[in-house]
Amino acid sequence: QVQLVESGGGLVQAGGSLRLSCAASGRTFSSNSMGWFRQAPGKEREFVAGISWGGVISDYADSVKGRFTISRDNARNTVYLQMNSLKPEDTAVYYCAAHRSPVIRREGYDYWGQGTQVTVSS
Q1: From the centroid of its chain, how far is CA 115?
Q2: What is the pLDDT of residue 36?
Q3: What is the pLDDT averaged over residues 99-106?
Q4: Which ranges of 1-122 does DSSP label H, i.e. alpha helix?
Q5: Dihedral angle at the C-alpha atoms of 114, 59, 11, 76, nearest 10 degrees?
Q6: Which residues, in sequence order, are bridge partners of residue 55?
């Protein structure tokens, strides 16, 4: 089992920045690939970004590429999502997730956090 707790959400104006953190505990964190997802009201949850177990390889949804950066610190059992140039359409609940595979995936994640709200005002 892996327990995940997100933090860092909040209200920000368009063009601003936020950094989300996800603290992991439980079984070995460094062997899992990690991902961030989001769900806006009335929409399905969507993949935002993923990172391999070693942090070398990352993947991004087209809608956030060039604006968001995923990173991880395996010594601290934490994964981050730096979000710059935020837009109102980025407003959603953001979820951290862990995959049993060390390789990046866009689906099939095994463990999920409770989510943190990000609201971008225009």
Answers
A1: 10
A2: 98
A3: 91
A4: none
A5: 60
A6: none
